[in-house]
Design goal:
Elements lengths: L2 E5 L2 E3 L20 E3 L1 H15 L5 E8 L4 H10 L3 E6 L6 H15 L3 E4 L10 H8 L21
């Protein structure tokens, strides 16, 4: 099956974001979370590739707490065929995120993996960079893309 895997993350919409009293991050309790816009762009591109007949399935994946299911439901409503949530209630550092994605890639065997360029809540884009620099992806991993042209997978 020709599958595209798209990594999605939830981000807080509240501005300015209050910092936790212990300075370990931003407060997320009570903050409305939505799909990260850069991940949404990646999902839309995956759906366009599928519409052109170059893929059979779009798989949305995310790592986070149980309420991250809402962002995956949004992806399904947009047209993704399946979703996977790796549920955790603790913050996952970028290198661990990249390693989890590597395991999902090994299991699901997508021919293409798309990630948004960065998160808008913390302006982080480290998971993609960790995947590329640490060799976790085991495939080309472009840092930026402004246009794509997809050949038929073999």
């Amino acid at each position: 099956m020709r599958r595209i895997m798209v990594a999605l993350s939830a981000c807080g919409l509240q501005r300015p974001r209050p910092v936790k009293p212990d300075n370990t991050g931003v407060v997320t309790e009570g903050v409305k979370m939505s799909l990260n816009p850069f991940d949404e762009i990646a999902l839309e591109e995956a759906l366009r590739i599928k519409e052109r007949g170059l893929a059979d399935e779009v798989l949305a994946v995310s790592i986070g707490p149980a309420d991250t299911q809402q962002q995956l439901r949004t992806a399904l409503a947009m047209g993704a065929d399946r979703s996977i949530l790796v549920q955790t209630d603790t913050a996952v550092p970028p290198l661990s995120v990249a390693k989890i994605f590597r395991q999902l890639i090994d299991k699901e065997q997508p021919f293409l993996v798309l990630l948004g360029k960065q998160a808008i809540d913390d302006d982080n884009g480290q998971a993609r960079r960790c995947s590329r620099r640490c060799g976790i992806a085991r495939r080309p991993c472009p840092a930026r893309r402004s246009r794509s042209r997809t050949a038929r997978p073999r």
